């Protein structure tokens, strides 16, 4: 009888293992759904003080959203005349109704992607929004109106025109795609500088990056670290690399550092320029 009773007992071990597997699968699914940076993304790397990443993300998303909304309002104001006829109003109402229908949700303009290192976050932009242009406009506004102080936690913003994975990237080919409109599409020779930033990546070193980018630019353009026409920003962080091009006011705009634009560091304490 004792043996029969033992055989009749439910196999709790199998049941518990099944529950653990289900729980583990759920955890893995959540991890698998975590947003990651993909090749072809563009956007902005944003830095902040350690431990302030969450506040920085919320602040950056608000800042970019408000800037896009403001730019759109200005554009609509310039395009619209003083009188709106009935047809224009009807068209606007129809457009708003279409937007309320299921399946017509607007694409996400910005998406924050946390990095596996402190103090830095990537904000992915929708392809309809130019990260280089938006960051430049935000910094111009901060430079002209430092008393506004629209941000407390956001520090440096580094826009990237496109991103590649460092394990498979051909840096020379990637740079050619990004730099062609600026250096190889006609026009007079330009003075340029290169500013690489490398964090958590051992595949590339600073000298290699500078030489590769300089070779792509070509000898018809000259290097000028202080009085450049264009500055090439190469951002290598962990397993991704992004490239962008900024204008000759990049240093004037404190290298796109909002904290510096709102509360400038005295010149005697400011870091020296570095690059090529």
Care to describe what's here?
The protein is an alpha+beta fold and 276 residues long. It has one domain: VC0802-like (2-Layer Sandwich). It is 41% helix and 18% strand.
Total helical elements: 8
Largest sheet: 5 strands, mixed
CATH class: Alpha Beta
N→C terminal distance: 87 Å
> Could you say what the CATH topology is called?
VC0802-like
Which regions have little confidence, pLDDT < 50, spanning 5+ residues?
16-32
Mean pLDDT: 83
Q: Helix-strand pattern, N to C? A: HHEHHEEHEEHEHEEEH
Protein name: THUMP domain-containing protein
Domain THUMP: 142-247
InterPro entries: THUMP_dom, THUMPD1-like
Keywords: RNA-binding
What's a concise summary of this model?
This is THUMP domain-containing protein. With 276 residues, the chain is an alpha+beta fold.
Descriptive keywords:
276 residues, 5-stranded mixed β-sheet, globular, VC0802-like, THUMP_dom, 4-stranded antiparallel β-sheet
Tell me the layout of helices and strands.
Elements: H1 2-8, H2 12-32, E1 43-47, H3 53-79, H4 86-100, E2 110-114, E3 120-125, H5 131-144, E4 157-160, E5 162-165, H6 171-183, E6 191-199, H7 206-217, E7 222-223, E8 230-237, E9 240-246, H8 258-262
Parallel strand pairs: 6-7, 6-8
Antiparallel strand pairs: 1-3, 1-4, 2-3, 5-9, 8-9
